Amino acid sequence: MGCVNVKKQAKLRIKVTPSITPVTDESRKPSYELPSSSPSDYEPLSFLGAGGFAEVTACKHIPTHSIRAQKKIPKSKIKSYHMHSQNTLKEAYFLESLDHPNIIKFFEHFDDRDNYYLITEICKGNSLYSHLAKSGKLSEKKVRETMFQILQAVEYLHEKNIVHRDIKPENILLTLPDGCCMKISDIGSADQITKKNKLSGCFGSVFYLAPEILKGEYDEKVDIWSCGVMMWVLITGKKPYEEIDAKSVKEKIGQKPLQPKQFELSGLSCDGLDFMRKLLEVDSGKRISATDALKHKWFEDISKEHE
After folding, report:
1. Which stretches does DSSP call E strand in 90-178?
2. Which of 34, 68, 123, 254 is the most exposed place for a label (fewest CB within 10 A)?
């Protein structure tokens, strides 16, 4: 479960070419039956954190003696939109099909009478949000390295037609305390998009919502907007909107969404400012894609290291 540092990982940026066609349930079934896991296979070690309706615990996987993270989700809090099929959480369904160095590694899932359990790798560096809270804000160099890794994962998700819908510092995990390797986690709000059908519904943290989400249908570009807001937060160390309650924040996003201003981003290079503006383009049709974002001049030095 160790993770290489940024430079070593960069050299591994061999283009992942996932199938655009969604993986079917049948194709995922192994040619042999694996023994079913249960909560009794895991020994709780320590509490890691809790979200809106789930808690995460560090556990020892007894059969392999490995340390993993166990996310427990009460069935009583599950809504129909959380489910891919009658017995499978969307989060588990998507995680099973993903394999990318900047996305949390998934091991298995199971359930009992009261809860669903998702088992993933454990990241020892806590979240990007916790890292930011300690440092106040990040240097442009650190933000550039972070955004490059996150956008690689976003590009991969979008190529698989998956929209995360909740990208924010709290959902970016650091594999080690030095924060050199980032992993997107918590895809419980994710959904799959098709060429014919866009998505709808308001998911994710209100501060990171793209303007089009409040108007109705939207596509994968909402993740790009969230990345832009996250970049702004990492550079400034501030909230993107002064409003506190969700209703007021939504009104502000609808009337005057976040736009990068040079005087608020003192010290950010011209290339960095241009990059952020492309992420935070209000017109989603003109907003940059993850693939094109990775080719931006701001990443020129990192891209050379990855060759």
Report:
1. 106-111, 115-120, 162-163, 172-174
2. 34
By annotation, the residues acting in catalysis are 166
C-alpha 291/C-alpha 95 separation (Å) is 21
Q: Which H or E element spans position 71?
A: strand 66-74
Tokens representing residue 83 in the block: 């489910």
Q: Tell me: is residue 186 an annotated ligand-binding position.
A: yes
| CATH code of the domain made up of 23-120 | 3.30.200.20
| 170 assigned ligand-binding residue | yes
For the chain, the first-to-last Cα distance in angstroms comes to 25
Domain locations along the chain: 23-120, 128-306
Q: Is 171 annotated as a binding residue?
A: yes
State pTM to two decimals: 0.85
Q: Is the dihedral of CA 260, 261, 267, 270 positive or negative?
A: positive
Same fold, 23-120 and 128-306: no
| CATH number of this structure's domain 128-306 | 1.10.510.10
Give CA separation, 83 vs 61, 71, 258, in Å.
26, 16, 33
